[in-house]
Design goal:
Layout (H helix, E strand, L loop, with lengths): L1 H7 L4 H9 L20 H20 L1 H17 L3 H26 L4 H21 L2 H19 L4
Length: about 160
């Protein structure tokens, strides 16, 4: 009991190193002794070194891919004829996202409505799984519908 009270008592910085290296009092486990600062283990140092090495490695290898991507984007930007319409569409998309966020926040503040909408979403998800994903012939039908939509978007009339 006295040893546990002594471990919780504030310790000066000069005695801190001695206290952390001192053996534990008999009968106490490491979880019962309150250390003033967390100890660094060899495993945590290895993880930090591994993350640092992975960060360095990823930055070195992606520079060529980044340059290729930037040059590709620059070529596409130069090939565009009507740049002002792209800027207008981009601004419209940002405005639409902002308006939708405002609407969702206002609907979220209404009592009971978020729970009801969550229930509607879960029930629709359950219906979709039952209708299209549960049986093999329905999965084939869904794949056909998706392929049809892709053909209409791309414009292939095969």
């Amino acid at each position: 009991m006295v040893a546990a009270a002594a471990a919780v008592r504030p310790v000066s910085f000069r005695r801190l190193g001695v206290l952390l290296r001192a053996p534990l009092p008999c009968g106490l486990t490491t979880s019962r002794v309150a250390a003033p600062f967390p100890r660094r283990t060899a495993d945590s140092m290895k993880i930090c070194q591994l993350q640092l090495t992975a960060t360095r490695f990823s930055k070195q290898n992606n520079s060529g891919e980044d340059d290729e991507l930037l040059s590709e984007l620059k070529d596409k930007w130069d090939a565009m004829e009507n740049k002002s319409s792209l800027a207008l569409y981009g601004a419209g998309a940002i405005l639409a996202v902002w308006i939708s966020l405002v609407v969702v926040r206002s609907l979220d503040s209404v009592p009971l409505l978020p729970g009801i909408l969550e229930l509607v979403g879960l029930s629709y998800s359950g219906w979709f799984v039952y209708r299209y994903l549960l049986f093999q012939e329905n999965r084939k039908e869904l794949a056909g519908v998706i392929d049809d939509i892709k053909r209409r978007i791309v414009g292939d009339d095969e």
